[in-house]
Amino acid sequence: MSGIDACQGCGVRILDPETGVIVARSSRGYAVTIGLVRCGRIWFCPECSAAIRRGRTEELKTGALRWLAQGGILAVVVLTARHNRTTDLARLAAALWGEPKLDARGNPVLDRSGKPRRVPGAYQRMLTDPAFYGRPEAVSWWERKDGSFGHSVRPAVPGIRHHIGYAGMVRASEVTRSQANGYHPHMNCLVFLGATLDGTPAKGTVTGYFDPTAEDLEAWEGWLRDFWAATLRKMDPAFEPTTECFERDCKCGGKGHGVMVKIVRSADDAALIEYLTKVQDGKPPADSVAADLDAATGAAMETVRADNKTGRGRKSMTPFQILYRLWDIEVRGTNPRLAEGYGRPDQLRAWWAEYEDAFAGRRAIEWTRGLRGHVHLVGDDSEEGDLEFVYAGAAKEPLTGGVVLTGDAYGTVERTDAEKEMEDVVVREFYDSVGDMVSSLGGRADHVRIATAEELADVQAAMLERLQTKAAKRRAEALMLRLRGELADALKALPADAPPAAAEALHADFFRKLIAAQNPTAPVPAQPQPAALETPAETP
Length: 540
Fold this sequence. Notes:
alpha+beta; six-stranded antiparallel β-sheet; four-stranded antiparallel β-sheet; 16 strands; 42% helix; globular
């Protein structure tokens, strides 16, 4: 089904043949499978997506809690575009999130450092627009005819971000598909507001907190609605969302359907409760969101957990529901009229291929630069980080019991597409029945062993230690490559007549950063003062 090699092999190959595969019941009542190679593709693999989004939710929940506790406020923002059944999903995704810049022959255009350049989408343009970001101070120098130099200073101009205390945002992208209007990509954003900054959001430091005025927040929302619609209109008039609505009792309140903003001033704010406790997947609203933890969890889940959402009945589907419907029809033999969702198998395959083509290589969840530091978190949005959530999440999950299968036994289950049935048996804690199931499928019952919670905890501890060691090695290698690249770029940028001390200062800074990253508690050598050089203006 998938055209992505990593997805085709996900959950098939065994990590450690000696350990085998563990299928266990978590303390929260769902099945956990440990010991298989995973693809880590958040867009295209249901199992990996769930694990990654669970991990990212916890990360965002922590950040939101800390921000509110420190005195900041949050804004939940939803951004979307106009679309219909004939809209090309790849073109719409490019308009929203950008795309690689290509030359006339279709080859990637590279920047001076050799990295592929990108054409920004509406999201990137929103963050860098001068009206929002402001303009830094600029100094211009010129040489007079007598050989002396003159200069002029353009003073800094504050932008909207200064008035609302913008410190960054977390963007989580989602896609659904409706029978009436085709694919519907949109963004859920959690925006961190109410901070005073020394420097820029990406490179500065939070020095305090304040409560933006209602007028400033309304001005930001009004600018955002107008900017979003105008930017998408320039890219394609068919993508321009509405900025006003005359539908009676519409949830947009007459403001149009391209942008929705909810301000959150405390963890039990009424606006947060109203927005985050809406019914999803047929589940009732949470019993309480008054506690900080519950509210922050809700904010994080609404932003990140696309895997936890479903479409509406037979008229709307998530991409994973496309797979589930195809599975029900072609594997289970379910009557198409009784299977969840809509569409013939040939349509479902075409829709999935279109989805893969549009979202391969895109980030589903992204923190703006510097934001993690403002809430005292480490980590990144890389695929390597996603894989850590996939493996480490299973290794940390408290387990109440389960079974260990040899490679042959699990292979029997996998070849007969019986993984789901086996997980159902384990969730119900009928561990003795797993051996009988494997035997009925043509395998050997003695290749299945029941494991206690204590045995599973030992296996998890050993697995987590191996994962952490590998992750630390990958991070060290990535750090070395990044710092070497930064050093090379800085050395290239030195003027030809720069004194030797300038290059020495850059090398010293390289080692200072390397020592600080490898051992944060170690004393770090003082950074030598570099020779006076021209500093480029900072960018967001």
